[in-house]
Design a protein that fits this description.
This protein is of the alpha/beta class and 287 residues long. It contains nine helices and twelve strands. Helix 4 links the parallel strand 4 and strand 5.
């Protein structure tokens, strides 16, 4: 029997790099890793040629435009990557019988809830980024029903730029820091999400639809920063501030907690607590 092939797009981002690291634990697949230099998913003809040449069985789309503030001015490019490229993937996948896993975001909600968001709750993005990601979800599921969308939040990794690395850097450079305490969510270690994606593909029971994934537990950005500094033994005076005291171009969700019951029940996935996973990531970052 032929070994299934998984194409991973956006392979140089946080999640793409973690997919490469996780692949060693799932040796029953062939892996193809691409970023824009190897394959521009905005170019449908190039995507078709690539898919046909490589006999792909699964596509995991980790590529995204994620600069939330910049997206407000860069609307066209944001939609090209987050919606149009996803439509290309969906069309090529449906024509070739390929199953797709696409990564989306908590920003499809406006963050005004006080209970964890489930997959069937009404979406209401408040930013260009959130609207473009929602458009990508919709076009994928409408075009290729054999698709899974996984929404995640507060992603970090030992790869790339993220909140964890920023707090370590600033904590060593400054005596004090102000961090927002009235935005609440669940940090997500990209290595855990990568593992969950490969578990789904390995599970001979591919159930299309929308799923939520983040680490267990809840914290504010302030709590997150304090825990990062405690684990790295950084003595920086971290002060809690309100969102209104930290000017940002676009609104950030005040509440980003995702209900993960569906992914746990469907695939039997056990999700670690965010502090446990943060410790693992920091161990990799420590010299």
């Amino acid at each position: 029997m032929q070994t299934p092939t998984i194409l991973i797009t956006g392979s140089r981002g946080q999640l793409g790099n973690e997919m490469q690291a996780a692949a060693a634990r799932y040796p029953n697949f062939n892996y193809i890793y691409t970023d824009i230099a190897e394959l521009d998913i905005c170019d449908k003809a190039a995507l078709e040629t690539f898919i046909e040449a490589n006999k792909v069985n699964f596509i995991v789309n980790c590529a995204a435009y994620t600069a939330v503030d910049k997206a407000e001015d860069d609307v066209e490019l944001c939609y090209r990557i987050n919606r149009d490229a996803v439509q290309n993937i969906a069309q090529v996948a449906v024509a070739n019988g390929i199953k797709v896993i696409h990564v989306s975001t908590d920003y499809v909600f406006d963050g005004t809830n006080h209970l964890p968001y489930s997959e069937n709750q009404a979406v209401c993005p408040a930013t260009v980024y959130g609207k473009s990601k929602l458009a990508g979800e919709e076009v994928l599921l409408a075009t290729n029903p054999l698709s899974i969308v996984i929404r995640t939040a507060w992603l970090y990794s030992s790869y790339g730029n993220n909140f964890v690395k920023t707090m370590i850097k600033l904590g060593t450079e400054r005596e004090s820091l102000n961090v927002i305490f009235d935005q609440v969510g669940s940090p997500t270690y990209a290595a855990d999400l990568a593992d969950a994606i490969l578990k789904i593909i390995s599970n001979n029971n591919f159930v299309p639809g929308i799923y939520h994934y983040s680490n267990e537990g809840v914290c504010s950005w302030y709590d997150f920063a304090k825990t990062i500094h405690r684990l790295t033994k950084i003595s920086c005076n971290v002060q809690p501030i309100e969102t209104k005291d930290y000017p940002a171009r676009t609104p950030r969700p005040h509440y980003s907690v995702l209900n993960k019951a569906r992914i746990k029940q469907t695939y039997g996935i056990q999700i670690p607590h965010w502090e446990e996973s943060l410790e693992k990531c920091i161990a990799l970052l420590q010299p």
